[in-house]
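Reopening this one. Same input as before:
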Amino acid sequence: MKIEIKEIKENPLMKRKEIFGIIEHDGMPTPSKAAVQKYLAKEQKVPEKYVDVRKIFSAVGRVDAKLIAYVWKEREVPVLEEKQKPEEAEKEKSKEELEKKKEGESGEKQTEVKGENSETKPEPKKEESKKKEEKPKEKEKEAEKSLKDDIKEGIKEVAEEIVKETKEEIKEVAEETKEEVEKLKKNVEKEIESAEKEIEKKVEKKIKEDIKKKQKK
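Same output, byte for byte:
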């Protein structure tokens, strides 16, 4: 697995980096979020608890996937664990393909035996094989459409979540700013009050000095 980072956006308001990249996984299944979290933590030189893998978009037949991830400065996220190693997944995939191949071969043999013993013509067999070929294509199209719908839904969810988090952060910043303004206002009022008292003392002192001078005269 190799991750090519296309763009890193600094978001000081949210206190995070926003990473957009491409995951290359030629000949292997799409990497899990746990594997990507570990990879990015090592790449960005931060603990895994600060790496938040938001979305991995993968299309049928492609050897790469799109990635959206955040690297938080303060907020912590769960450290994900690998449910299954890539090697084990590949072995299981190979086993499934081998079993499907065997089932396909046994089905073809049974069809050939039936053709020899029966008087039916070979044309219907061709039609059946065409139908069998068409079905996987239809399933593939349905799967591709379903994946595209999932990707759109995923992008929508991420966008909504980003907007929600941004609003919350803005609210927090606004509250902090309000508190700071109130503190500053109180400090200014104290300074003004202190200055007024100092001026009153000086004026009072000056008046007393003037009265003494007049009495001496």
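So the earlier flakiness isn't reproducible anymore. For the record, The chain has a mean pLDDT of 77.
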